[in-house]
Amino acid sequence: MSVDSSGRRVRVTYPVTPPGDDDDRANAEHLTSSPRGELTERGSYSARGENVDFDRLSDEELVTAVMRLATSEREATSTLVRSLMEVDARRLYLRDGCSSLFAWCTEVVGLGEGAAYNRIEVARAGRRVPQLVDALEDGSLTLAAARVLAPHVTPANCADVIGQARHKSKREVERLVAALHPLPDAGWAFTHLSPGRVRLHVTISEATYDKLRRAQELLRHTMPEGDIEQILERAVTLLIADLERRRFAATEAPRGPRAARATSRHVPAAVRRAVWTRDGGQCAFVGGQSRCSARGFLEFHHRQPYAAGGATTADNLELRCRQHNQFEATLYFGENGADTVRELASSY
Fold first, then answer.
1. What is the distance of C-alpha 8 from the center of its chain?
2. Could you tell me if 153 and 296 lie in one domain?
3. Cα–Cα distance for residue pair 217/226, rounded to 1 Å
4. Of the four listed, 94, 240, 274, 327, which is most buried by Cβ atoms within 10 Å?
């Protein structure tokens, strides 16, 4: 016995054979049930897929058989969930020496941990909201989708929430749940796990998430698993190459240098490459006994200031972080003149 969405006690039936009338079963090569509950086709099928003679089934018959088996599996799953609701209510796991329903399902029934957890969560939610199990039984919710909904569905919102989730994928249901209970952005952080391995915690926008999923789809032929780490590595490598090309004219095949005008403030691509390579993409300011370690907000600094006749050549240019570029301008021109002569940062 179990409870339906109207609150009435209902009888639970345990299907053994797939649904269908006798004529349908005859067209599917007389699918029957063995005494152990294994589906066989004239002795050719077994639960473990042994001794299967698929050559005797036409394409249509095989598809029909699969559809029946899928329906039978869905009915069996919903029946198992209803049964777990009753086992949990009666606490029958205690008599078998188990302290919890989860332990009973994994140790006595033989379910895998993931399978047990999903079914128990849906069963317990089903005790509060029987409509959840009804939707699982009629096929409008998958077990995965029902599991995602389980912590969030209530008697008050079940009609609306389950209605929106019907025939949706797990990912779509996750988005529905996120709209029901939005969480604040978690920011980003790095966690060092082991030598050479770092975990990145980051909150991204829906648009960025869609781009990641699109990248996974486009890379399926080379990355069947859709490894996010590999996608990020490729994307960041390309981004760095693009930024270095734009900022410092970095390229694997540079063209010959053009005749540069040393009296111009413009820094030619060949000069930018030479300075960037020589300074290692790092601020070249040395103070005391150490060199500045900054690699961000880098600018080209004239060792002899441009305003004082300094040439725009590799020999007269060095990389400076924004702070040290301002600092050296202040040393040379004083507090009042530094802002008027300091070079502007790149717009990219």
1. 41
2. no
3. 8
4. 274
Contact residues for 309 (Cβ-Cβ < 8 A; gap 6+): none
The secondary structure element, H or E, covering residue 231 is helix 228-248
Residue 216: count of CB within 10 angstroms of its CB: 15
Q: Can you tell me the distance from the alpha carbon of 317 to that of 299, in angstroms, rounded to the nearest whole number?
A: 10
Count of domains forming the chain: 2
Tell whether 108 is covered by a domain.
yes
243 lies in some domain:
no
What's the longest Cα–Cα distance across the chain? 100
Residues 155 and 291 in one domain: no
Name, in order, each residue with C-beta under 8 angstroms of 286's C-beta and a sequence gap of 6 or more.
292
Specify if 53 maps to a domain: yes
Between the alpha carbon of residue 4 and those of residues 45, 59, 87, 121, 186, the distances in Å are 35, 38, 16, 17, 40
Establish if 194 belongs to a structural domain.
no
pLDDT digits 0-9 by tens, 116-155? 999 999 999 999 999 999 999 999 999 999 999 999 999 9
Q: How many CB atoms lie within 10 A of CB 294?
A: 16
Write out the residue range of the structural domain in which residue 78 sits.
2-180
CA-based nearest residue to 296, from 343, 242, 346: 346
| Tokens describing residue 181 | 């209970």
CA distance 326 to 334: 11
User: What percent of the chain clears pLDDT 90, i.e. is strictly above it?
Assistant: 45
- DSSP one-letter string for 71-105: HHHHHHHHHHHHHHHHHHHHTGGGGGT-SSHHHHI
Contact 295, 320 (CB under 8 A): no
Token digits of residue 102: 């989860």
Backbone angles phi, psi at 3, to 5 degrees: -120, 130
pLDDT digits (tens, 9 = 90+) for 85-116: 999 999 999 999 999 999 999 999 999 999 99
